[in-house]
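#structure-requests
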Amino acid sequence: MKTKNILLVSLLATALTASVTVYMHSRDAQTRILDSYVNIIASELSEEDKYELASMSEDELISLYFSLGMDIRNRWLWNNRQTILSLYLYCHGTFEPETMSGLFVHRLWEKVYEDMPPEKQKEVDKRRNKALRYKLMRQELDKYLGPAEKIDTEQTPDHE
């Protein structure tokens, strides 16, 4: 009898683990889990903030590390506060809250753009393309002229 109970508990634990794994890896579940948290942040942003976020190039998202990224880490990721979100991110090979918040910010960036009306998306596309053109132009100039020197403000004379 005791052996049957142990076998039954073991079988149930295996089935539960398999169910959670399948659920966590299904594309629909992934989108719902992350988007449920993304929607909370998106609802707290003003229309102007959403426009500014969507207008950023993908490379510029790192600038949000100490602001939006820190807010996400403090609210949901430190100390495994939201287990389902942490579990989702763990299943995708992300174990550090810093990396998790980066993925979160990236999804928010995509979602805010997707939710915009088409005319706003066109404006955002123009801003993103302009930033990309500037970056490519800067890289080309750096290749030929060398990187631009930074001005040392401590050695710059004061203007009176």
